[in-house]
Amino acid sequence: MRIIAGRHRGRTLVAPPGEATRPTAERVRQALFDMLWHAPWGGRTTIQDQLVLDAFAGTGALGLEALSRGADHCTFLETAKPALTALRANISACKEDARTAVLVADATRPPRARVPCGLIFLDPPYGQGLVERALTALGGAGWIAPEALVVAEAGLDEALDLPAFVPVATRSHGAATLHVLRAP
């Protein structure tokens, strides 16, 4: 697994052993960031200079990819110790300690945000209704800026019930579906 583009292009990322952490595949990240960058509703400003939240961060691949492509800062939320070890190693390997914060926190019970984020990544375990629970909790804790873009990865057959968010795009890749939503 590696960073696809930007200043850290080609940087190898580590993942914890076992099946507990499911990093977003390189081809899915490539398709996602191409869509964010080139879609009519997207553009460079969807990533560049944004404050990013990578909830259910795992290895941090999504947030680190955003930083590599020009995001200003990324906060990572993660609770699993093996994933936290890999996440911190990946941040150090990319020399991004100054532009990141790692919070040992559950995205369904997050701490209060200091500043809301304009780009949110959610990549929870599939089939547990965690996207809906996390977005409700993150919104209540001030993490989601008005009109922020939210990218939620879910299982292929997993429907999302998020009436407050405007669907912008949906793309399926293998066993995953990427839902891009606009916050109210």
UniProtKB/TrEMBL annotation:
The keyword Electron transport does not apply. Keywords: Methyltransferase, Transferase. Coiled coil: none annotated. Gene3D superfamilies: Vaccinia Virus protein VP39. GO terms for biological process: methylation. The lineage of its organism: Bacteria, Pseudomonadati, Pseudomonadota, Alphaproteobacteria, Acetobacterales. InterPro entries: RNA_MeTrfase_RsmD, SAM-dependent_MTases_sf. This is DNA methyltransferase. One of its GO terms (molecular function) is methyltransferase activity.
